[in-house]
Amino acid sequence: MNIKPLTPDSSPQASFGAQLRSHRGELKMTQDRLAERTGYSPGHISSVETGRKPPTLPFARKVDQAFDSGTKFVNLFLDVRASALLQGFGQYVVEEAKAVEIRCFEVGIIPGLLQTPEYAAELVTAALSRGAIGQTQADERLRILASRQGLLARQPPPRLFAILDESCIRRPIGSPVQMAAQLDHLIAVAALPHVTLQIAPYSMGAARSLNLPVYLLGLPNHSVTAYSESAQQGLYERDPEAVRTLLTAYHHLQVEALPQAATVALISKVREELQ
Predict the structure, then answer these.
(1) What CA–CA distances, in Å, run from 261 to 158, 162, 164, 191, 239?
(2) How many CA atoms lie within 13 A of 149 on its CB side?
(3) Are 242 and 111 within one domain?
(4) Which range of residues forms the domain containing residue 63?
(5) pLDDT digits over 109-135, tens only?
(6) Which of the residues 8, 166, 229, 272 has the least number of beta carbons within 10 Å of its own beta carbon?
(7) pTM over 0.85
């Protein structure tokens, strides 16, 4: 039998297909048997496995039921739907919408939840011009961001703790006018009662306990989950031990970072330098 080789790292859709085939193989389940359990044809399953056809949410749910795999394939589907973003972020976005508390640390750019539309558009346009994403992905990225930002207007809103490396406010994105507007927006957001904003200054040096972006979600059931990322991939983490390590590092960072009043003063100073 000729089995088409898969390239799971090429896209979230290809990863979904590869993991579908791998999981089916581990269970020694044929495509015909999976077809019986899901109600989809063997040809459809083959097309999804080889990446010729994208999965759908109903298909992912049926597969999870057939494999008794919890929400594994539903989560993988969310990555496919949010393919304009790093793998793992689709799962994070779904859980972020439920969160009662959000803690984030960013390096180099303003966190998405705090970006102005103009700042966000500059980042997406730059990625588009580099060929890193296509127009469809660019539009999807902005759509997802706008939806996420609506969380801060929700009633009641989630409690937001945001720590920004100093590079976030120093790195010019767009024109001086656009960057000034972004810094003004940060100052306004810092005044909200449900937001705590801090800057991790350059002077911290090696004392900064996190070196890559990290997001921590406090969920209604009192559990905490985490999302972290490197340049090439993201990881949504539910394991309590792994999350505890990131949460501890975040708490250390909160202690060492500038308090909110000093943070607002530094942002205002950088804002004045743009004039």
Answers:
(1) 21, 14, 14, 10, 35
(2) 16
(3) yes
(4) 8-81
(5) 999 999 999 999 999 999 889 887 778
(6) 272
(7) no
